[in-house]
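ok here's the first one, seq then struct tokens
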Amino acid sequence: MTAMQCQHSLSQARVAMLTLRLATSGGWGNRGAPSITPAATSAAKVSGEQDIEVLPGATDTVSALAFSPTADVLAVSSWDTYVRIYRIDKTNAQPVQPWQQYNHEAPVMDVCFNAEGTKVISGGADKMARCFDLNTNQTSVVAQHNDTIRCVRWMAALGGALVTGSWDKTVKVWKIEPQPTLVTSIDLPERVYAMDVIGPVIIVAMAERKIMAFQMNEATGTAPQVVDQLSPLKYQTRCLAALPDGDGFALGGTEGRVAVHYFHDPPDPKDGKVKKFAFRCHRRANADHSDVPRNETHLFPVNCIKFNSQGTFATGGGDGSISFWCKASRTRLKTFENKGTPMAPKEVFKTNPNRLPLTAIAFNADASIFAYALGYDWHKGYQSATSESHVFIHPVNPEDIKKRPQKT
């Protein structure tokens, strides 16, 4: 596969709907655990037992998930050209309530909310960013590019502004009210593959492993460049997330590896160490996966990274697993994974028996809900394409995302 095909990654596929039977007593997350499959013996660790599927779902692979910053409202963008919006009521045994939907004229690549949680904004292959007003149920075009809009983010600068990143090798900043107005356009050396915003800083990962960051200047309406470097990973970037403190970013690559990088990282005068680090993840070896030949390790892309309000983060990979991590202690906090053989499992990920790749993840504002999307990510080409696609919500145990003491 070419680099362009790999990064486009999500191909059109049809959904096979899976309905979870839910217990009806009590609120979601407080029910007794449902019975597990016969293969999941008492010795196996089981994840996802209380996870609930978001239905009705998309009819093609999910490209992005986003929660409102002010309420438990989930937006789901898909290659089927639609953005679907759901209310989630944690006190209800049936917590997912379909609310609204709108569509683009081509696959939707990304979605976000404004700071007030009143608008859903999405970008797609129709080269437009569209805004859906949750108060009026009206949709409007708020941004345009000359090629696919790969990323959309809302930033606090300028009293609230939309940032769009495109395959046309530009990042643009827009004021969307009272009328859409372009504030500034930034020319880039390559296509945008991933992007995030923290405060006034825009961080962009591009083709050819390029990383750049820009700081929005509200007085001049410009965004001067503050970082220009190559990715600390050896291979293509699949995802990027700004660190919560605004002092760097985390990158996921195609080689099953995550790098945590800081903008300013001078050696410690006492021991000469730096803060940046990288670690392996989303890989399979024979010890846990009998389908992998001995003395081999299979590497899978890290498709998504998201931080939560506790400062820890999650990754989702092409191997069909999810992990929660603590950056400060450099430790893994929790995994959702299928390990072992079907008849003698070590770990069981109840909602993902077929090990579908993770295509998108998101935490809600207080990190009590974690949403994840399963579907095909095209890392194995068309021969391995599957029609399955699902979104689930997971009630988060606070201990699973709690920061651990920093390593010294």
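and now the second one, same deal
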Amino acid sequence: MNMEFIEALHELEKGRGISAEILFEAIEAALISAYKKNFGSLQNVRVLIDRLTGEFKVYARKTVVEIVEDTRTQVGLEDARKLDPNYQLEDIVEYEVTPRDFGRIAAQTAKQVVVQRIREAERGMIYDEYVNREGDIVTGVVQRYEQKNVIVDLGKVEAVLPAQEQIPGEVYQSFERIKTYVVEVKKTTKGPQIMLSRTHPGLIKRLFELEVPEIHDGIVEIKGVSREAGARSKIAVYSRDPNVDPVGACVGPKGARVQTIVTELKGEKIDIVNYSTDPQEFVANALSPAKVVGVYPKINEKVAIVVVPDYQLSLAIGKEGQNARLAAKLTGWKIDIKSESQASTLNIIPQGIEEGYETYNEYEEYSEYDEFIEADNYQEYQENGQDIDNGHTLLNEENAVGEINQADDEKYAYNNNEAYDADFSISEDTQKVTEGVLERAPREIVKDLKADEKISVKEKKKKGKG
């Protein structure tokens, strides 16, 4: 060995990141094996390589004993003290036994060892890099198909995307860049084996961390993810800052952030809901986009009865129960969805507040607006000079319209009967109320009344001609 070899080892250290000391130790261990193999020596030896000059020497190691039984591994105490008077029993004495023609063998062995160690070191470095990225997202390039598995190039190593971890119906083109989730990293004799996934719920979480700065900064937190890959996913988000809307932060301006994720997942639908420590509110939010009338949870059994409007029942359940299934996974509650008519028929809604039940109604938070609506109605009728007494005016107006319609029908019927020649009239009270109704009636009602009046005039003219 010479200085060029030493310089080459230091270049490998800089270029490949492999410590030169590790290479020196590996070469020394290989030279020990080569010495014993080529020179048939059974004695203990040690090889020392000078880190500066590259020169190497072989030393035989013998143990100091009183009575020598094996000269290859033992030396007498008197002989040892001839070399150094400080030797004691059980000490190790080294003798230089470097062969003259050992240089060629050493060079061949050193080359093989260095190449092997470089490979092992690179594999070890790749393993150490990716074993710490388990549960993280990586970007790779699709290389090829091997049976149903997809081989993805991550740069330094190729990873495997198994068939069961692929999104159903998704087709991967060669040299297409895709984002995947690192499920597992195994250490094998051929190097690290990295298993990827496109169906893992963690992929959704990591994609949102990449796209939403508020999640990356810790202001918004993803509390839970439930997913049916390729179809729909639900995530529950929570904001530590009351001034930050977690759902709006994830959706982004004009839906730009969530649309980027949907595009990456080839059109998979994503529902973003608010997380709540209150199970009733959380269950109601998780069933989004369906509207919930009431939630009646059984705390001890962790079962929630959810009542929805009749027209929202199919939306709450979802296609093949998908929406309800994802909501149950997200909340950890067993959800029983009933329509309002079913709930009233089966009498499954607890009456009052029973033990173990709590109620939630999403419309309760809007009850304050009912007062403003009632005040607006009162002001409207006051402007028209009418008094409101528990809705009696409205009832009287409806009765008056009904009386007019009935009178027109009867008058038309009686006019067709020649035997009937009586006068027909409407009471003065009804007439006054009617005038008020007509003044404020919609255009459609006015048109209908005028049309009926024209028909009556035409019928009278026909009878006059007859």
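notes on #2: The first strand starts at residue 44 and ends at 49. The longest helix spans residues 102-131.
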